[in-house]
Specification:
single chain; alpha/beta; TIM Barrel; Sulfite Reductase Hemoprotein, domain 1; 2 domains; eight-stranded parallel beta sheet; five-stranded mixed beta sheet; 15 strands
Length: 358
Amino acid sequence: MASRHQISVGGVTVGGGAPVRVQSMTNTPTGDADATLAQIARLGDAGCEIVRVALPSAGDEVGFSRIVDGSPLPVIADIHYDWRLALAALEAGAAGVRINPGTIGDPQRVCRIAEAAVERGAVIRIGVNQGSLPRALRPLAEREPAQALVGAARQYVDQLHSWGCTELKVSVKSSSVPVTIAAYRALAEVCDAPLHVGVTEAGTRWSGAIKSAVGIGTLLAEGIGDTIRVSLTADPVEEVRVAWAILSALGLRRRGPELISCPTCGRTEIDVVSLAEEVERRLHTDRRFAESPITVAVMGCRVNGPEEARHADFGIAGGSGEGVVFVRGERVAKVPEGRLVDELFARMGASVGRTSKA
């Protein structure tokens, strides 16, 4: 597997041993700079490190420029068809542009984008999708879609290198998980540019999270992937949460609390489903714990619950209409079921507050 060339995306290091970076994309109108900046702030609070913003028409250039100026995160312009919009985005100070050279068309126009990116120290992401391959590769795509994706990506990388543009990221996405995995495996063997990994058009928050976890997770477990985006038909903040959950599950990065909860069974004596959902909701919304790498357990029976809860930083284990609260292995309170979550968060808040003051 080729080693990754390290690049800087608006000051965020990518590739070459840097941590896997979390990326998302705004879905507010780019012309509404205030709404877009508010969404970028929410994404940043959730752990997003690079944000992509569509620049669909010349009428959005003023809004895009305001977004770049006010964004706390590096902004990548998403460009299709009109090469002049890519130049305008770079002129506005975008950290990079995402293009599919196949939709730009004329190679000389792609060359102009490459020259502008080099001049401004910006990055180009070559984004190849199964739905927008060059005409010459479409017959191959019918037989071997992964190879067609890789063929297009290599062609574009070689073109940009010939024009002196080497600060690149590359993606080869498909809505098919097996095709996505095969394409990135093949590309990782022949390309040293950082790879942006994702399953495109993955679906809703539930189904898309599953497809992304399988596709992105498989590749990351094999050491493939330098930035990731979980593509969901949902609030983009959910994309960031799922991305961090994938990284945490693989032991690659941790941000914020991790919830452990039992699957329920016939021994369950309390409403562990409601308890777990309430704990998860409050962990996501309580800013005190946003960046605390704590483990929180919610267990529903007297058999395995207490011991499992002991191994977490904080936990609750239920019995019949009541439960026990644990703090770092110590049993600290026994309260009625209706007070379990409040007691848990009170103990967590007190403990995290002491740690932060120390």
